[in-house]
Each structure stands twice: as structure tokens, then as C-alpha cells.
Amino acid sequence: MKGLILKDLYLLKNQLNFFWIICIVGITMAFTKMSPIFIVNYMTLIFTMFILSTISYDEFDNGAEFLFTLPISRKGYVAEKYVLGFLMAASAWLVSGGITLVFSAIRYPGEDMTVTVIKMTFYLMISMVFLDFTLPVQLKFGAEKSRIAIIGVVGGVFVAGFAVVKLFELMGIDLGWLYRSLSAAGLAGMALFAGTGCILLTLLSYFISVKIMEKKQY
Amino acid sequence: MVLKLDNVEKHYEKFDLQCSLEVQKGCVTGLIGQNGAGKSTTFKAILGLIGTDGGKIELFGKDIHKLTKGDREKLGVVLSDSGFSGYLRVKDIIPVMASMYPHFDKRVFEKRCRDFEIPFDKKIREFSTGMKAKLKVLVAMSHKAELLILDEPTVGLDVLARNELLDMMREYMEDGEGSILISSHISSDLEGLCDDLYMIHDGNIIMHEETDRLLSDYGVLKLTEAQYEKLDKRFIMKRKREGYGYSCLTNEKQFYLDNYPETAMERGNIDEVISMMIRGEGK
Fold it and tell me: What is the value of ipTM here, to two decimals?
């Protein structure tokens, strides 16, 4: 996996200018009255998206074909994309989160930051959920078609979610208990619940991606 | 035996591959055929890049689906239309290779790159065709692979660059531990390098022969119709209608030289043989 991570980092060096622009935008945002939570969300999500461009680089000029002649399994390739995606999201989250917290502490001295930190963790999870949806789609459809496919996938998920809720309603099952339990658990409890859901979704997404890659013919 | 394909089948809508071949330890085996004959499909099947519809492929004595990371480290591969991303530089490839292959010899790889004047700091996509081809072969040979699988490694190269690459392959074979499976549609590349040759046409292996025997025992007889009628056809493999009569491929050149000294005989070479095997008909 180390070799693949190095390869992707070297490939991402090609986008160094874009990295700097995002950092400058993020720092500029910090000087404005923009919500610190939004800045962290923006930075984390944008940095997470870079992992998708590594797949495009791999596909360019049949490169993936050669990659799988190296001592890399398809499962290992998929795992590396999730690990590097998470590492990029976590690094961007930590750095942007750290900076915005320092800014907030200077601007609003004495204010309790616990709630802000917990809220921030939701945005790390959102980035992972973003990866969970986009990685399998990108691996399946490639860089070009995946832009259209992801719209279909997200739409499909919403429709499925809506259908499940309606089905429960028709069956007379009250989902209100879930909402009430979450509200009672407080923000930290909700973060824990969301975190568990995020891990399960990531595992499901990983297994789908592995299946997609194992079926791929070059 | 390093590699064995036993009745491997792959079916596409307009193409069917059915292939059996073997690569022995310490040998260079060539796969020759026209464009679209099935060379790349065979290579992809060996490397697990495509699934197969039948048959069995064994690498280092193991089914290819059971190969470990360690087994794959013993392979060095060149693909004709693919390689490391063009957005990487040679200086980027070095740490990547070092992380993937425990036997990667950084010092030797760097020296060879310098010898072949391959720039370290330039993106691969900016390389010339020759530089790209040389780099692919250097990468495949950089980690003490036991088997090199080289699909058209000399494609698009001028004579000098081709000879340089072929010399590198001969050097690789010197210790007798390595093996090579190489494909090319340039027969002269294979004549001077391979121990044995497989000819592939329309997805089928149409001939397997040792290169020495092919060059020494094969020949093409040029016969008038009258000469052809009187000919002992026991050792004629294929015949082809010509303006003057028939040309016939034999694998017992000496028999006809001894018994029919008046007939014209062309020395067997890969191009002649493959042409006769494909275009010729049964005797």
C-alpha cells in the first residue's frame, strides 16, 4: 500500500497550484465573518475530492492496466483509495479545524469550543460519506461517466430512503422513537451514532468497490 | 516450468482465443503473430487483467488466481499500450518501485537510466517514444524478476534503440535464472533472441518450434506445377499457389535439397514461415 500511496501523492503534486489556491481561499474565509464550521467543511470536502482525481490519473492512457501487473491486488488498490481519502480528509480537517479554532479563540475569547468541535466532527463524517458514494461510482464508471452516474446514485438513495420511510408508515411502524432517542442523546451521542453509521457505510462502500474492481476487465 | 497455459479460452463477440503454451526456466519464448492475432489478449490473460472462459494458467507452478504478492514480485512486465502514469517522473517512480519490490536495485536502475540518457526530472508523457519504451523495459528489469513478460517492447523504436533493448534482454538472460515471454510483430527481433517460438493467428497457436530448428530445417521450395506433381509430399507442411506454380513450406529442408537438387529452395525465416502457415493450404 505504501507504494500506491506514494504514487498517488506524487501524482497529486501535479495539482499543487490548486492546493495552494484552496488554502488561500480557506485562510481568506477565516478573516471574514464566515462561520468557522463552514470553512472546515469546505476545506475537508475539497481536499477529499482530490482522491477522485488520482483515479482519473490511474485511468489515463490505460495506466490502471499496468498498475495491476505490479504486486498490487485489486482489493489492495481499493483499500488504498479509501485509506488515502480518509487521510486527506482527516489532514485537511485537522489543519483547517485547528486554524479556525485558534481564530475563534482569538476573536471570541472565553467561549466554550466543545460544541464547535463536536459539530466539526460531523463534517469529517460528511466527507467520508461523500467518499463512500463517489468512490464506487468513479471506479465503476470512470472519470467522465461518473459525474452523471453520481447524480443517479444520490437520487436513487434519496428515493430509496423516502420509500423506506413511507413503507414503515404504511406498516404502522413509528420512526419517531429514533428521532426522540437521538435528541435525548445530545450532540455527542448523535455524533457517536453518526460515526458508527459512517463506519458501517464505509465498510459497505468498500466491499462494493472491491466487487466492482474484481469484475473489471482490462 | 515457469509458465504454462493449458487450453486457455477467451471468447469475445468477434474474436475467440484458444491458446496453450509453455515457458521453460532459462528460456526466451517468443509469441509472434499479426496485429489482432491474440498476442495481447494472451498476455492479459496470463497477468489476470482479463478473466478467461476455460482452461488453466499456471505461473511459477501455481494457478494465477492463487498467486501471492511475493509471486507477483517475481514478474517484470512491459505492456505495449500502458505503463506508469505519464504524469510521473523517473525520480517519482524510484521510491514507488522501492516500496513495492524488496529486490529493487535503485543504484543499478539509476545507472541504467543515466546510460540510456533517460531524464529523471521530466514527466514521462514528455518523453520520446524510444525513451518511454526503454524506461518500460528498465522498470521491468529493475527488481530481479524471474520472468519477464514483454508485450511488443520494441514497438515504434528505430533499429539502434531496438538493438539496445535486445542487448539488455540478452544481458538479463546471462545468469540462466531468468525467463522471458516476448511478443513482437518484428520477426528479426525474435530470431536473434528466442529459444523457441509460438505463432498465433486468429486466436489459435498455429505452430510451435525451436528457433534454431526453424532457421536450420525449415525452407520454402519454389516449384513449377510439373515439379510439384512429382514431389514427395511427406514433409510438406503447407503449399501456396503462385504464378510460377507452387511454393511449399517444409520442415525437412535437407531431405529436399538431397533428393531434389534442381528445385529452388529459400532458407526458412520467421516471416516466410508465418506467411506460409497463415496463407498456405494443406498439401
Answer: 0.85
Bridge pairing between strands B28-32 and B75-78: unpaired
Q: What is the DSSP string of A6-55?
A: HHHHHHHGGGHHHHHHHHHHHHHHHHTT--HHHHHHHHHHHHHHHHHHHH
Alpha-helical (H) ranges within B47-152 are 69-73, 90-100, 106-115, 129-140
Locate A95 and state its grid cell: 489543519
Of A10, A63, A65, the CB nearest to B92: A10
Residue type at position A177 = W
List the single residue in B with minimal CA-CA distance to A217.
B50
| Contact between chains at B49 and A58 (C-beta distance less than 8 A) | no
Instruction: Assess B13–A contact: CB distance below 8 Å, yes or no.
Output: no
Q: Does B77 touch chain A (CB under 8 A)?
A: yes
Residue pair B134/B161 in contact by the 8 Å Cβ criterion? yes
pLDDT, tens digit (0-9, with 9 covering 90-100), for B58-113:
999 999 989 999 999 999 999 988 899 999 999 999 999 999 999 999 999 999 99
**pTM of the predicted model as reported, rounded to 2 decimal places:** 0.84
Q: Is B21 helix (H, G, I), strand (E, B) or coil?
A: strand
Interface check for A50 against chain B (CB to CB < 8 A): the answer is: no
Interface of B with A in 141-160 (CB under 8 A): 149
